[in-house]
Amino acid sequence: MKLTYYHAPFACSMVSYLALLEAGATFELVPVSLKKGEQKTEAYLALNPKGKVPLLVANGQTISENTAILSFLDSLFPTAKLLPSALMERTQAISWMSWCSSGLHPPITRIAKPGNFCDAPNSEESLKRLAIAEQLRNFAIIDGKLAGREWVFDHWTAVDGYLFWVWRRFAMVSGADLSVFPAYAAHAERMGARPSVVKTLVLEAQLAGD
């Protein structure tokens, strides 16, 4: 199967990119510069009218949204065990990924781009403060889940990759003190040592410099 993946540095497309590497997939990588607005070009919108990353093209068929892409990759590469195989655990993994996209990602966006959510005068700092507070409450939940555990489930899954992106991106945009989440911090450190993450961070540094 021919796979083409559209990825932007620092964006949540890191999540499915990590999964592709973990699965040992052969794919073509197409960098997308959000800074240059390449996600809004006519050519890209023809593939993904949402104008966002990630986007996976599999044999000419497009798949957007990390949760959908990760589910597809798990079925395509079953031996990689990107998601748990047991029905209940797999369903719980989908629940975690859904929360990552609908609950953990939005506060990051509000912090990074507050002007996109409210144009009232002097509202940006308030938006950031509320988003940071919301995310810290979320992080407390994650920290509790990871306490005494290496990964969210009994083995590494794509959920761990998603949580790593959330941790890293929130740390980059918020400046919040994350030392109060030792289990989550240890998880991020373990993730940072994985070859797929090392390779991805090198790529992101290269793409960000272009």
Explain how this protein is built:
The chain has 210 residues and is α+β, with helices and mostly antiparallel strands. It has two domains: 3-81 and 196-209, 3-Layer(aba) Sandwich (Glutaredoxin); 87-194, Glutathione S-transferase Yfyf (Class Pi), Chain A, domain 2 (Up-down Bundle). It has helices spanning 13-23, 42-47, 66-76, 87-112, 124-146, 158-174, 182-192, 195-209, and strands spanning 3-7, 28-31, 55-58, 61-64. A four-stranded mixed sheet has the order 2-1-3-4, covered by helices on one side. Strand 3 and strand 4 form a beta hairpin. Helix 1 (13-23) runs parallel beside helix 3 and helix 4 packs parallel to helix 6. The model has no long low-confidence stretch (mean pLDDT 97).
